[in-house]
Known about the structure:
By secondary structure, this protein is α/β, with parallel strands linked by helices. Helices cover about 45% and strands about 15% of the residues.
Amino acid sequence: MDEYLDAIRHRRDEIMARVDEALERSRRAPGSVRVMAVSKTVGTPQVLAAIEAGYGLFGENRPQELVRKLGELAEVSDLPPVRFDMIGNLQTNKINAVLGRAACIHSVSSLHLAEAISSRVQRRIESGELAAAQPVLLEANVSGELSKSGFTPDELRAAFPRLSELRGIRIQGLMTMAPRGDKSVARSTFASLRELRDELAGDWPGVDLAELSCGMSEDFSEAILEGSTLVRLGRVVFDPAFELE
């Protein structure tokens, strides 16, 4: 594990250098992008190595993995504070497993899901199990890919009056995924997300839409150039053999 730790420490230095370079190119403030280590394909030992390497924000795709890893990490003494978010598709029958565990749910992809989360959060607040509304991001399918979930831009515009009323959620911004394989298309997708966020922020000034969660291992530099505030990196973090382009 020492060799692995050295490798992901070195890789983290490379990632952060790329982040800083993209911020400089886009004339954004240093430190204005957070790096999430997406731990969906690795075990708790690899997460512990990542924590030691300097990561403090993690993302999980499956509620059961979120529960398992948080349970195992709770048994580790002298662990620095870490945060886990839920970033994968969330079914309504898995909401209860995520509440109280995920700091933020990135994948609120429909009004139905937002309402279901909100109602369950409100019940837990009333019972004293939760203290506050659940932070969420709204997943926007700005690329129009049929294989991807999320609100279309028009659906999000139409749903926003109702979304803004839900007391059990606290909207913090938008999330998207770009088509893979073409960085120019990815950059255009991220620009479209930023433009949609700016439009909604202008129409709904009382809602905080500061967070833009976009950019993954293959395209995080392009995402930062277009305004991403949080990049979600999996293979490039945990696989030393992954080529950082």
